[in-house]
Amino acid sequence: MPSQIAPPPRLLMGPGPVNADPRVLRAMSAQLVGQYDPVMTGYMTETMGLLRGVFRTQNEQTFLVDGTSRAGIEAALVSLVEPGDRVLVPVFGRFGHLLVEIAERCGADVHTIERPWGEVFTPEEIEAAVEMVRPAVVAVVHGDTSTTLAQPLDGLGEICRRYDAILYVDATASLGGNDLATDELGLDVVTAGLQKCLGGPSGSAPITLSERAVERIVARRHTEAGIRDADEEDAAGRRIASNYLDLAQIMDYWGPRRLNHHTEATTMLYGARECARLLVEEGMDAAVERHRLHGSAMAMGVTGLGLEVYGDQRYKMNNVVGVVIPDGVVGDDVRGEMLSDYGIEIGTSFGPLHGKVWRIGTMGYNARKDAVLTTLAAFEQVLRRAGVPVPAGGGVEAAHAVYAA
Ligand SMILES: Cc1ncc(COP(=O)(O)O)c(C=O)c1O
User: How many domains does the chain fold into?
Assistant: First the structure.
């Protein structure tokens, strides 16, 4: 008989997931209620309201897609994109490639513009591509954790409206720790996850949709035969290719019709609601500032150890820093020793950056001074043992200087 689940204590300082806030874990240990119990539907409605605060939106259609962040992305794209639609994806890291791959699976005619990893686009570059491609949907990642950079979103909403394109943003890694005001920026659809700056486990994907996005999706509503009203007609638009991720049906489940679709993942909903409560209680500006402070302390700390930070720092995400692995050092050995000797997890990188860059996160519950200082202190010891000539106390001192400023 395998033993009960008893994971060792870990400090998760990678690019996410990070340790969940204890308040979220407590909420998730509560007993289940039935799917249509007024308590449950009440929690669902409250979660919608709290998430509007997190996304900074008035959008009525703000709710959860059950599944990891990727389910939110797929739900958005499969519901927005009809086969043959032109979709423009500005790619500046791994997750841009993911948007391309998902849009292609939706049958889209996908066009891309690319930047080398470590850089982002100017709004003018994106506008020129929109003007040329005339896409139905522009799909862009906000914070691409693979490169640790955030694409500035200012102006993109206005550009997309001018060219009558829907603007979809993957804010999985940025929401809660970096400025993202959905309505002010004119973003049509934004999706996220819980496991980064929201301080929860992965498994639930918050989403918000503007009126224009909702209109486009409702024009494709084909409700399942077994639950539709006797006189209900299909919308004229093409049926959405996925049943599970059909946002037209999911909106009817979360909305006043309460039309049965999936069985809402009760425990994940408890967790997501607490994540949102934490952020709304703290205030979104304060949460972003907390991520900026601890992210800066970590970045200055690694610089204080004599290491180089990766990418154009003007566009660095607040919540994760890329660290160039010194020549001759095996990145995975250092990560292994951080974990085995100190119980601290830091991240590797994907694709062209694997073996070249570590990624260290400061987000959600772990955007805290003690987590930053503990990580830097351990990192110094592990690097020294790996033969890197690190200045004694250089990391912790540099971080302290940020906190003292
Ligand atoms: C920007 C971005 N998009 C999408 C994902 C995929 O999220 P998930 O693993 O929750 O499906 C991640 C995960 O790291 C991410 O950072």
Answer: 2
CATH code for the domain of 190: 3.40.640.10
> What are 239-296's pLDDT values in tens digits?
999 999 999 999 999 999 999 999 999 999 999 999 999 999 999 999 999 999 999 9
What confidence tens digit (pLDDT) does each residue in 35-90 have? 999 999 999 999 999 999 999 999 999 999 999 999 999 999 999 999 999 999 99
Domain interval for residue 349: 284-404
Task: Tell me which residues have their CB closer than 6 angstroms to ligand 1.
Answer: 16, 68-70, 95, 141, 144-145, 170, 172-173, 193, 202
pLDDT at residue 32 in the model:
98
Do 177 and 318 contact (CB within 8 A), yes or no? yes
One domain for residues 239 and 335:
no
Q: How far apart are CA 310 and CA 90, in angstroms?
A: 20
Segment 248-251 long-range contacts (CB within 8 Å, at least 24 positions apart): 248/79, 248/217, 248/218, 248/220, 248/221, 248/222, 248/223, 249/221, 249/223, 249/224, 250/63, 250/65, 250/75, 251/61, 251/63, 251/209, 251/214, 251/217, 251/218
Average pLDDT over residues 359-369: 98
Counting Cα atoms < 13 Å in the Cβ hemisphere of 22 gives: 0
What's the confidence (pLDDT) of residue 181? 98
- Do 184 and 243 belong to one domain? yes
Q: Which of 69, 345, 349 to mutate to test the pocket of ligand 1 (most atoms within 8 A of CB)?
A: 69
Question: What pLDDT does 31 receive?
Answer: 98
The answer to whether residues 236 and 292 belong to one domain is: no
